[in-house]
Design goal:
Elements (H helix, E strand, L loop, with lengths): L8 H35 L2 H27 L13 H30 L6 H23 L6 H30 L4 H28 L9 H9 L6 E11 L2 E10 L4 H19 L1 E10 L26
Parallel strand pairs: 2-3
Antiparallel strand pairs: 1-2
């Protein structure tokens, strides 16, 4: 049996290019987590311990993202006809859910310390925070390329950029505590970090759920799309229109297109024009278009062409 499965080499190539950078980011982050956790225990800084915990989730997130990228490079087969692109969406869902849980834990511990602020060694906080800023910014830049088109990479990039911003807050708090000894700033900054994590995780979580529910991409105006399809010469109507995403970089669509009673060759030309418009205006490169005669009933799954026509068959039998 011959298989004709759609492949998407641009996504596969992008995954292969991203994997070495993800692996390097993972290694650097893992080493730094150990250093920051030790410094946090030594200085009794919740901000550093919080940031170390967040960085530990980055290690897990980067590891899962790397594995999902590896799955993406596998070719489509008879069982996975779209390939393994949704693996990255599942990883993004896991990463964002984990971030929400961590944020809740941070809020709880920060509240406890605000009620009774412990002594914090601000010098250690500032020194380790500066090192954290360099590591987090470097690893974030490593995975930034391609993150605008891949939700898996995006979740990893948001993890790392969240670290950059939260580390800036921790360093600023440490500098202030060096001169004021306001130890309550440490848990207050931790709460800020928690809010930042929660906000970033919420955006990714909403997008992953939308993709898994096969919702229409947020930047696609369905009314405008219908109008654009109707502008194609030969299109008389459109119904049963569905648009969804396999992953952020791979959109797909299906629709029934109404035309006059035209030859197959003319129908193919109409399909080609619709596909070209969809690719240029809506970045949809995988559309399934079913052409139907204008006499079809749009509300029926199977339409009857010219319902008044009676098909007659004649034959002879011999004995």
């Amino acid at each position: 049996m011959t298989q004709n499965l759609h492949t998407h080499p641009h996504l596969t190539n992008a995954a292969r290019q991203s994997m070495p950078r993800l692996a390097l980011s993972l290694g650097l982050t893992l080493v730094f987590v150990l250093v920051e956790a030790a410094a946090g225990f030594f200085s009794n800084s919740l901000a550093l311990l919080t940031d170390a915990a967040h960085n530990l989730t980055d290690v897990v997130a980067l590891g899962l993202s790397w594995y999902a990228m590896q799955l993406t490079t596998r070719p489509a087969n008879a069982r996975q006809t779209y390939g393994y692109h949704r693996a990255g969406i599942l990883v993004a869902l896991a990463n964002s859910t984990t971030l929400v849980l961590i944020a809740v834990g941070i809020f709880y511990e920060a509240y406890r310390r605000l009620m009774s602020p412990p002594e914090v060694q601000a010098g250690v906080l500032v020194g380790v925070g500066m090192l954290a800023l360099a590591v987090n910014l470097g690893t974030a830049l490593l995975v930034r390329k391609g993150s605008e088109h891949d939700l898996n990479l995006r979740s990893a990039f948001v993890h790392l950029m969240g670290d950059v911003l939260s580390t800036v807050g921790a360093v600023l708090a440490g500098v202030v505590m060096l001169f004021t000894h306001w130890n309550w700033l440490d848990p207050l900054v931790s709460m800020f970090i928690g809010l930042l994590i929660l906000w970033n995780a919420g955006g990714i979580l909403r997008e992953t759920v939308d993709i898994l529910l096969e919702s229409t991409p947020r930047d696609v105006d369905m009314d405008a799309m219908v109008r654009d399809i109707l502008q194609v010469q030969g299109v008389m109507g459109v119904h049963d229109l569905h648009v969804w995403s396999i992953t952020r970089g791979l959109r797909t669509m299906s629709a029934h297109i109404l035309t006059e009673d035209v030859p197959i060759s003319a129908g193919s030309a109409i399909q080609a024009q619709v596909n070209e418009m969809l690719a240029q205006r809506y970045k949809i490169v995988h559309a399934t278009l079913q052409l139907e005669c204008i006499g079809c009933e749009p509300d029926l799954l199977y339409c009857e062409i010219d319902a008044g026509h009676v098909h007659q068959s004649t034959g002879t039998t011999g004995g």
